[in-house]
Amino acid sequence: MGGIVFLLQQVAYAYGFTSIALIDYTGFSPLFGFFMGFGALFGDIIKSYYKRKVQIAPGQSWIPWDQLDFIFGGIIIGWLFYVPSIEVVVVLLIVSPFLHLAANYVGYLLHINPNRW
């Protein structure tokens, strides 16, 4: 899915949505998106391992790590292809936790997610 979403972002960028993009998508392969998606999942796996080591039950919130694990994983694996500017990293670290919490809460309100956060 990471590769597909990245490809869709490339198409949107090519059709003029350049002002809202964090990076210039030209010259990148959709494999970049695939590997960032892989990194996000890998970051979540590592966080889940440590979450169990400190005996936090599955489904129980572990703020802020539940909101940042995928960002760290995606950025670290993404560095194999692209080193983002510090501004991009800061935006991701600030905005992503709020979007993550908001998406979980909407899922809770729609009875998709059993937990609020």
What is the subunit organization of this protein? single chain
Our count of domains comes out at 1
Unreliable residue stretches: none
Give the terminus-to-terminus CA distance.
23 Å
DSSP, total strands: 0
Annotation field: number of helices: 4
Which H/E pattern describes the elements?
Answer: HHHH
Query: How much β-strand is present in the residues?
Result: under 5%
Cα gyration radius (Å): 16 Å
Work out the helicity level. 55-70%
Average per-residue pLDDT, rounded, comes to 91
Q: Structural class, from secondary structure content? A: mainly alpha
What is the global morphology?
globular
Query: For the report, how would you describe the main beta sheet?
Result: none
Entry keywords:
single chain; globular
Structure explained in plain terms:
There is one protein chain. The protein has 117 residues and is mostly helical. It has one domain. Helix content is 64%, strand content 0%. It has four helices and no strands. It is globular and about 45 Å long. The mean pLDDT is 91.
